[in-house]
Amino acid sequence: MKLYNSLSHSLETFAPIQEKKVTLYVCGITPYDTTHLGHAFTYISFDLLVRFLTYQGYAVQYTQNVTDINDRDNDILRRANEQHIPWQKLGAYWTERFLADMKALNWVMPTNYLYASKEISPMISLIEDIVKNGQGYIAQGGVYVDIEKVQNFGKLSKLSKADMLKIAKDFDEDLDNPNKRHPLDITLWRPSAPKQPSHIPSFDSPWSKGRPGWHIECSAMAISSLGEAIDIHGGGIDLIFPHHESEIAQSESATGKIPFAKYWVHTGTVYCGGEKMSKSLGNLILVADLLKKFSPNAIRWVLLSHHYREKWEYKEEEFQKAEETFGAVIENISAASAKKIDITDYETLATEMLSEDLNSPRLLEKIALSTTEKLSLEEARGLQAALRILGFYF
Asked: How far lies 308's CA from each of 4, 43, 49, 99, 241, in Å?
């Protein structure tokens, strides 16, 4: 099996750290609003990866997180304050909605589904290790990674410091924090303000009451649930910097294990109206709305008809076509004949194509063509197996 590794910018033959065992971490949602098509594309792409690895006989340990709290005055806190409800209640509500949407798409629940607010202890332990090892420093109750002491900082994104600063500003990183030695130093722990509003939570730590940084949350949850060195770390391509770059710096500074993740796998961006689909822009295509118009299999077909690394534009006609195509495939399976004819082994075809960097679009093209010919019973069984590998249900 070959996977594209964002760290090396190349296709690599997949070889996990331990034979027949795979550890996978994927960055999860910030639960302050509902699930959109961009979310679904990322998580169904990794769902396919989990299904295919499992089919090949690997035991997959998969962790995904919920960023229900971090060091910023983030959307959850603002939205909860506007609605006069506890932030925990708002986060739980939208997490449940997300899980319901994904379950409808036949998504396999991760082995570990962790809430950042419940994992403060491993975060504090990891921060203590970073400081002890000399890559972190404490200033006025806050804790930071000194990027000048991190070996090969920028090895994932391969950005210049000037470009990093531009992107970090877009992500609302605390570049102007006077307690930092360098604007790009990574915030590990943010102390609470002296007169902090009551709706903003604080957690105890050895340094101050405060909150953990966004980046250290994922480092800690990955390491505590999967180990100090993991096989695959995934997420959307927009997270490469600053989030994933910071995870590498923190994790390797804390443990000394290099690499923190052997393979970095990133999904492409979904657009709507020529702009990236995002909550901030409001150009969202909601999964819940799509489910009112189309079957879960049709939605899954559209998502998998785009390669996981592809950037693509939402077009409603794709869903209607997918509905018709999937229906025709199932009808053709039902009409299979016992007559011996030339046989296409669709299960083998699925293995071959998914082994080439999860080439689900090419596989779906082949499956769609099956509707133009009468199937034998052997072909029908193989086609059913291929559809199950892809995560369709019928």
From this structure: 10, 10, 10, 21, 19
Gap between the Cα atoms of 242 and 145, Å rounded: 13
pTM for the model stands at 0.96
Q: Are residues 263 and 376 in the same domain?
A: no
- Can you give the pLDDT of all 394 residues of the chain as single tens digits? 999 999 999 999 999 999 999 999 999 999 988 889 999 999 999 999 999 999 999 999 999 999 999 887 678 888 888 899 999 999 999 999 999 999 999 999 999 999 999 999 999 999 999 999 999 999 999 999 999 999 999 999 999 999 999 999 999 899 999 999 999 999 999 999 888 888 889 999 999 999 999 999 999 999 999 999 999 999 999 999 999 999 999 999 999 999 999 999 999 999 999 999 987 777 899 999 999 999 999 999 999 999 999 999 999 999 999 999 999 999 999 999 876 666 789 999 999 999 999 999 999 999 999 999 899 999 999 999 999 999 999 8
* Total number of domains constituting the chain: 2
**Residue 328 domain boundaries:** 317-389
| Among the listed residues 345, 367, 359, 310, the one whose alpha carbon sits nearest the alpha carbon of residue 2 | 359
Q: Is residue 277 part of a domain?
A: no
Q: Which of 271, 300, 329 is the last residue of a domain?
A: 271
Decide which of 236, 271, 306 is a domain's last residue: 271
Query: Considering the domain boundaries, does residue 68 fall inside one?
Result: yes
